[in-house]
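Q: Here's a chain of 176 amino acids. Please give me its 3D structure as tokens.
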Amino acid sequence: VTPFVKYMVSQGNNYNHEHVNYGVRGGIFYLLKGWRFYADVVTAQHNLWGETLTIGELTHDIGINYNSEHFGFGIMMVNPFSPHGSRTVTKDLSALAPTFNTAVMQNYRQVLMLNFNVNLDFGTKHNEGWKRIDNEDTERNKYNIKNLYDSKRCDNFAADFSHYFIRFFLSVMECA
């Protein structure tokens, strides 16, 4: 669980607006052999741009993935417990013409995503912990160096990257 404070200041020729967004981001992550379960919750994100304040809503997602040495699959759902879709509040803070709007997108209720991946092993050996290098320019000694490619670490990185990229993409689409 991570609390956050987002302090925003917008200044123009004839206005000065300040806004503070307090929120919490929480998540749970559980690994068991090749299986991974995760759930994330983020409170409403606020954005102040000029004299317009946009307030999003609580977002949450759950998912389960399985990764093996040769393949992986997963399923994820964004906003599985949202009954009304996505709600965005827009406030115009102008002293001359203040407005307040609420937009509800029913199409952005629950989003289901499936993920499949395959490890194409073009003859490389992933299980070797050490590789031998021949250095022909010196005394013909053989040096052992640690193999920097760890397939399980890279698989988890790819799954985490795709998970957070999808959340970023959906938040950008919500703002557009």
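Q: Can you summarize the key feature?
A: The helical segments are 151-175.
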